[in-house]
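We were asked to recover a plausible sequence for a given structure. The inputs and outputs are reproduced exactly as logged, with field labels preserved.

PROBLEM: sequence recovery
POSITIONS: 294
GIVEN STRUCTURE:
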């Protein structure tokens, strides 16, 4: 009897030790991954407060004196006028987000709720899924021809419409998946209370879909804010450039302004970080719900 008890105790101790070792290895792996992700950002941050000579002499070292002149030059110097590119990016991204989120939410509600069994519903949803598999590069020439025909080349609205169109398939799919899992009892209760379709969507179902909406907003904001190919294809006027296209002017064939380029990258990242801090909890809920319920 005693050897059996000792064996069981030994096995229990080994299990506890194995769990502790597993936790230590997991934490170590997460720390390494965090360092890999955050070190480039810290390097870029310290490079943005250095002079060109310091960057060339010691690109990885800390600055002797923190220089904020790169940020001042970005916003004040007349030749750069970085703030106008900021305005262009904010205008294009916010307008495209409003259009894409509004349309995808309504379309997702129609596709996701079984009571709306309209004609060609399955075929339209299959086309939507097919659009997710198309690489966006194959559509650039038709998009440019279409924007040229309607006189929208070299306007911000060309980017607004194209960004919203590119984000619609994924956003509609996410919203439809989320709406399809909401309980029908709330919809039936609202119908008994005399709610119309629009009121039921706006006052009952839409508040329940806030995690999915936050997910759509955050993913699309990241895509729209960082998009480059359409920005340099549809807009060639310097005053209408967005941030990704404007950053290219700091890198030249014979000279690269490393400090200004790093400062531009840091300021361009701030809106994404701020938005993620506000929507991170909702984003996690939406992605988790999609993984479990989709």
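RECOVERED SEQUENCE:
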């Amino acid at each position: 009897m005693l050897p059996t008890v000792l064996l069981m105790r030994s096995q229990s101790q080994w299990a506890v030790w194995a769990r502790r070792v597993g936790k230590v290895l997991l934490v170590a792996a997460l720390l390494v991954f965090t360092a890999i992700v955050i070190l480039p950002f810290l390097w870029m941050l310290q490079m943005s407060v250095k002079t060109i000579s310091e960057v060339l002499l010691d690109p990885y070292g800390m600055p002797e004196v923190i220089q904020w002149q790169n940020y001042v030059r970005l916003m004040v110097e007349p030749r750069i006028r970085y703030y106008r590119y900021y305005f262009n990016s904010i205008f294009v991204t916010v307008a495209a987000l409003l259009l894409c989120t509004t349309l995808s939410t309504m379309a997702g509600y129609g596709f996701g709720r079984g009571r709306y069994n309209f004609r060609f519903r399955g075929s339209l949803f299959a086309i939507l899924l097919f659009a997710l598999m198309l690489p966006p590069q194959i559509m650039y020439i038709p998009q440019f021809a279409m924007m040229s025909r309607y006189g929208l080349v070299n306007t911000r609205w060309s980017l607004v419409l194209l960004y919203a169109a590119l984000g619609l398939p994924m956003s509609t799919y996410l919203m439809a998946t989320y709406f399809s899992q909401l309980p029908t009892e709330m919809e039936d209760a609202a119908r008994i209370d005399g709610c119309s379709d629009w009121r039921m969507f706006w006052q009952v179902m839409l508040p329940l879909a806030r995690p999915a909406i936050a997910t759509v907003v955050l993913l699309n904001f990241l895509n729209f804010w960082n998009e480059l190919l359409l920005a340099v294809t549809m807009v060639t006027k310097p005053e209408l450039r967005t941030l990704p296209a404007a950053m290219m002017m700091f890198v030249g064939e014979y000279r690269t302004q490393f400090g200004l380029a790093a400062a531009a990258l840091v300021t361009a990242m701030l809106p994404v970080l701020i938005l993620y801090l506000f929507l991170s909890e909702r984003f996690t809920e939406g992605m988790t719900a999609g993984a479990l319920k989709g």
